[in-house]
Amino acid sequence: MLLFVLTCLLAVFPAISTKSPIFGPQEVSSVEGNSVSIKCYYPPTSVNRHTRKYWCRKGASGRCITLISSEGYVSSNYAGRANLTNFPENGTFVVNVAQLSRDDSGHYKCGLGINSRGLSFDVSLEVSQGPELPNDTEVYTVDVGRTVTIKCPFKTENDPKVKALYKKIGETSVLVIDSRNYVNPNYNGRIGLHIPGTGQLIFTVVIDRLRLSDHGLYLCQAGDGSSRDEKNVDLQVLKPEPELVYADLRGSVTFHCALGLEVANVAKFLCRVSSRETCDVVINTLGKRDSAFEGRILLNPQDQDGSFSVVITGLRKEDEGRYLCGAHSDGRLQEGWPIQAWQLFVNEESTIPHSRTVVKGVAGGSVAVLCPYNPKESKSLKYWCLWEGTQNGRCPLLVESQGLVQEQYEGRLSLLQEPGNGTFTVILNQLTTQDAGFYWCLTNGDTHWRTTVEIKIIEGEPNLKVPGNVTAVLGETLKVPCHFPCKFSSYEKYWCKWSNTGCQTLPSQDEGPSEAFVNCDENSRLVSLTLNPVTRADEGWYWCGVKQGHFYGETAAVYVAVEEKKVAGSRDVSPAKADAAPDEKVLDSGVRQIENKAIQDPRLFAEEKVVADTGDQAGGSRASVDSSSSEEQGGSSRALVSTLVPLGLVLALGAVVVGVARARHRKNVDRVSIRSYRTDISMSDFENSREFGANDNMGACSITQETSLGGKDEFVASPESTTENQEPKKAKRSSKEEAEMAYKDFLLQSSTMATEAQEGHQEA
């Protein structure tokens, strides 16, 4: 059983080693006597910075024998000619080996920790024998595609004679160029021979766009015969050593390509070397682009010196390999043209967090994109740009953390610092089909943290439901609803006001289940935003949305426009008296009419009072709302009638009650009691007083006197005795007059009540 477990563990170890984060050059070549420098990369974690680094050689048995390490060990074979230097801040260490011999050829490893743990990278070193050169040979070492200038001296006697450059192929010499304008076809268009002015005993040969086939021995010659001048030249055309590039999975990488002024106006390209040793174009300035890099590659504009750069984001493991940049009119690799090389390694143990590379939204809805950045650079500026698949690709900025928002995205795009700690959020709502595409998350800090996300617009309806654009009235109250379906029952719901620096959260009211959804009434919610009172500053975009903690979900946008309160048009009505208000005139007129009607015929009051008040008040209403709409007039009339009709009924009932009371009072007070005769005599018996010889005046009255016996003697006195013997008395009001006065007081009080009711209605 134990043997089976060990076998399984041994089977797992090779799989682990293939995912080693250590990276270095796969092949290194040199010649005897020269030196090499091997750079190895490792993840710059705190542990890796301080752990052991080593360089070992693989033996026939598979073991790797240490030659040099960061702990100071150096093997006897490397003593005095090798060193290992660690650069922890960059996550690299470099092994330098000098005085190479052919015995140094072999397979090596650079790694961390213990040799057998698998944290290593395989390197192949090949040391070849150098050519046997004549003693006076001058060596020129130039990279392929570059330019070389060969200097050829001569003596004075050969100044007027022919100058030439030959290439030695075996035992023969092939003419390349001479001063008689001959040019070998293999060098046509890229070689020139220049002879300086008089007195300078040297000529030069310039070869542009060196090819690997240009490698070899050359011979400069001036004159002929035994007096000719000769010089041997060794031209070594080298393949460019690939620059090692170490990048994290999901991160980005930038290739800086400097090819020289000679190709400043020539088309540029970046290609990747395939297994067939061909170089497939990834992108070029002629508009060609590999579909595997769609949306995540840019070729930045070239500078005047011919340099340019290529940025690749959203790195994948399959992006690893060797890349070449170059220049050619066809936009692809051609022999003899300058190139640069890189070897890209993508570390799967990436510190860049996982994030969605594709985000889907519906037309009219929204998306929330999480963008990672280096947590150590929390104060860096954040950006979001839209990748455009133009000829070279470009990515114009749409929003940045300092407040810049492109005009066409106002009210629908916001960059938020949440959730923080290495991630910021970008929200885009009011989606249209034109919003589909690729977007880049950027900062002005670590360029390795650039990421790409693709937004796709799919069929469907937005989950959040809000009204269209809203118009609010200045000074009044506005309530804007937002309906949340049941799927967001556990989410935090909010309203906020959009600005170019973010979206400030506002107070909102949860008004219970929403009626906009039929499947889950109890779990759906209606959350409203209230502006009370509305001010000019309230105009703008408002968002309602959902979130969980600092992570944002869907949003919906509403634009609130603010306008002045509309006042209905009206005609100016001039009052009859400048110093009397319309209400006061109506009141005075009504009181006078009440008094007159009460005196003339109280029984007509109730009906005429209603008519008179209705007419007067209707006239006043027309004066104030004459220009109003018919709907407003109808409303005012109904309100006026609803006030006056009950009041008229009250007045009519009061008039009836007063009339009955008056009749009863008259019946009682018009009886005169004459105690001496114990007889009641009705006042109707004296209606015609002249028949009894009485004067028709207020002085004739009945006098009652009490006798000394305690009785009362009543008699009718003559006018003379009344005048002579009775002192003048104050005239008493008759019962009819008292009833009329009480009736007037009642009517005045009723008028006052009607006026107060009318004023209360106007205020309402």
From TrEMBL:
Residue numbers spanned by region Disordered: 615-635, 708-738, 745-764
Gene3D superfamilies given for it? Immunoglobulins (2.60.40.10)
What is the name of the protein in this document? Polymeric immunoglobulin receptor
Q: Where are the transmembrane segments?
A: 639-661
Q: How does it assemble?
A: Interacts (mainly via CDR1-like domain) with dimeric IgA. Interacts (mainly via CDR2-like domain) with pentameric IgM.
- Secretion signal, residue range per the UniProt entry: 1-18
Residues forming the Ig-like domain are: 14-120, 131-234, 462-561
> Where in or outside the cell?
Cell membrane; Secreted
Give the source species. Rhinopithecus bieti (Black snub-nosed monkey)
Q: Which GO terms describe its cellular component?
A: bounding membrane of organelle; cytoplasmic vesicle membrane; endomembrane system; extracellular region; plasma membrane
